[in-house]
Structures are given as structure tokens and as C-alpha cells.
Amino acid sequence: MQLWSKLCNGEDRLDHPINCVDWSQAQAYCQWVGGRLPTEAEWEYAARGNDGRKYPWGNDPPSAERLNACGAECVAMAKRELGLDWGPLYPEADGWESTAPVGSFPRGASPFGVLDMAGNVGEWTTDWYGQYAKDDVTDPVGPRTGSARTDRGGGWYSRREHSIRTSLRYWAGPVIRSSNVGFRCARGRNSP
After folding, report:
1. Cβ-based neighbours of 83, under 8 Å, separated by 6 or more
2. Could you read off the pLDDT of 102-126 as tens digits, one per residue?
3. What is the pLDDT of residue 125?
4. 80 vs 2, more confident
5. Rounded-to-integer distance, Cα 13 and Cα 159, Å
6. Taking the domains of the chain in order of start, what are their residue ranges?
7. How confident is the model at residue 136 (pLDDT cuts 50, 70, 90)?
8. What is the 3-state secondary structure (H, E, C) of 12-80?
């Protein structure tokens, strides 16, 4: 954790997404502001819309103009700071070694105009991780219990195209704090 802690956003990056927070911290903050974490189904709908797109912006491949993931500067930072040999998601530089200020990639907007649904930080959802039902379901509900929570969207160190697809599901223990995972709050149904 020592190496990664310098990649946690703090007072020097107030316009960047929050990261390095566990699921309970994310949930508590959303409740404090009168909201909640989105369900996994809500998150995917906001990112994907109803036309089955691969990425929030459509089906064109990821690029440094659409999202903050691991480009040339991320690869250089990983080598320099962490001693890791990472391959890039795209060869160009997106301008940020780790997270970028929120909303920096308007060309990556979802069909509803929601920004940063791919890259920057993955986002905790309210659902426990579990298998989807075999039949099509509208607005599915996750399992009632589990050992891992779902996060969606990939993050700044995503290095493979599939890792930022709108349909990809990640999971992590709810106590995990990662420089690649944060959250956004939802309002409406089920909000306190």
C-alpha cells in the first residue's frame, strides 16, 4: 500500500475523483449528501444507454481523446515510480499519469451526457458481486449477501480494451481501498 498511497487523491487534487475509499466510506458519504450508491444495473444503463454500445461513447476503440486510462505517461510513471512494465491501452498520452480532473474528456460522454463512465476511476455500486440471472431481466437486483462488492468502469491504470467496456464487472472486498476505484452518488429511488 505504501507505493500506491501517493496515488490517492487529496487536497492537492480537489478537482479529481475521490479514490482510495472503501465501499462503506463511499456508501456513508452518499447517504450524508442525501443520495446512495447506484445499483449495478443503474450504473450500466447510465454508461451504456439502451443501444448496446461497448463503451459510453459508442463502439469506436478507446483513445486518449475519450478517457483517462493508461496511455504513454501512465506507462512511463509505472516504470519510473513503481518499477512495473505496463503496456498502454492506447499509444497516445492523455495528459495524466494517474487520475485526471473530473469531466476532462467530454468526447467520452455516455448517451445521457454522463462523463467519466470509463477510465479515471472505477466506481463502487451498491450490489454484492454475483452471477447474473440466465434470463433477461429488466433492472436486475444483485444478491442479498456476498463477500465482494461490484465496481464498474475501469480506471486510470486500465490497460486492456475489455477492461473499460460498459458491460465489464469488477469485484473487490468491501474493505479494499484502491487508487483505481472511487464512486459517484445517485439520487432517486431507494434514496433516504
Report:
1. none
2. 999 999 999 999 999 999 999 999 9
3. 97
4. 80
5. 23
6. 1-11+28-128+143-184
7. low
8. HHCCCCCCCCCHHHHHHHHHHCCCECCCHHHHHHHHHCCCCCCECCECCCCCCCCCCCCCHHHHHHHHH
CATH architecture of the domain 1-11+28-128+143-184 equals: Alpha-Beta Complex (3.90)
Q: Enter the pTM of the model.
A: 0.92
Whole-angstrom distance, CA of residue 27 vs CA of residue 115? 21
**What DSSP state is assigned to residue 106?**
G
Residue for cell digits 516504470?
79
Q: Mark 53-85 as b/e (b = at least 16 C-beta within 10 Å).
A: bbbbbeeeebbbebbbbbbebbbebbeeeeeee
- In total, the chain counts a number of residues equal to 192
